[in-house]
Amino acid sequence: MDEEKGATKSAKIFMSVALYWVISISIVFVNKTLLSSPTNNIDAPSFITWYQCVVTVAAVWFMGTMGIANVPKFELKRDVLPKIVPLSCVFTGMILLNNLCLKYVELSFYQVARSLTILFNVAFDWIVLGNRTSLKAFGCVLLVFFGFVLGNKEEVRWSIQGVAYGVSASFFVAMNAIYVKKKYPLVDNDPWKITLYNNFISSFLFFPIMFGFGEPKVVMQSPNIYRSEFWVLMTIGGALGVLISFATAAQIKYTSPLTHNISATAKAAAQTVLGLMWYKNPITPLGGLSVAIVLGGSLLYTLIRRLEMQAKDKEAKSVVEEKQPAIEEKKIAS
Hints:
With 334 residues, this protein is mainly alpha-helical. The protein contains 12 helices and no strands. The chain has helices spanning 2-36, 45-66, 81-104, 110-113, 117-127, 135-154, 160-183, 191-212, 215-221, 228-254, 257-279, 285-333. α1 (2-36) packs across α11, α2 packs across α10 (228-254) and α3 (81-104) crosses α8.
């Protein structure tokens, strides 16, 4: 019986990790195709990102209506909506800049171009939340930064636009993490609700961006809008954006948050290798080393931060246990 339970648990872990890897890697490859493919792309990244937001809203509405996976019913509260707008502005910038970075850099360089998220996380942790980073963790940040500099130096098809968008995307990713923590209580700490609000608001925020860059004209003049393959890819990209929420939750449920972060780092390495195999773009040995340094530094940072959080929790628990006898004595005395 115990062996059967163990086998079932192992199977669930394997399936959850495999599901996360397949969906996460597929999102990147689908978006890269839509943004850079000579046959299925449209030079309108804001339009592509907007469409995927609309698909996400429609999918969340459908799942909520049908009662799928405990997704709440479609509901937007008037008092909550304006309070979520600042977060949605950051979210809009994050997803658009991620796609712009992917458009201008090789897939093998994508992780390096966006690797400064960890640096911005540490900076915002100190500036906004007042949390100081340990020397060990900061050493990992410096290692990632070194990998970023080396990668930029060694990238064969280097793009200043791609790097600028990557650094900007890293900034917005870190900002998004801060804002999500602050706004979560407004939506009852429900990730589906915050997904709904963000994508609903973003679908409107994209209109001035699209018109500002003249994308409606580009879209209407593109022959790809008459190709069914293009719209299938567009819809798949939006659907995968919803499915990744399921996959992430499943992986954390059947493993742990730490294992999820380790899995995400390993997935990024596999994604880089697959990108090299698929697109066959040139890469120098030091360019490959820069990817390894960035991913290794990120993994070490995750492990060190996890150990520090465990030590802090243990210390807080011991303080409570020390105070408990004194509290009991006061109760008896009263």
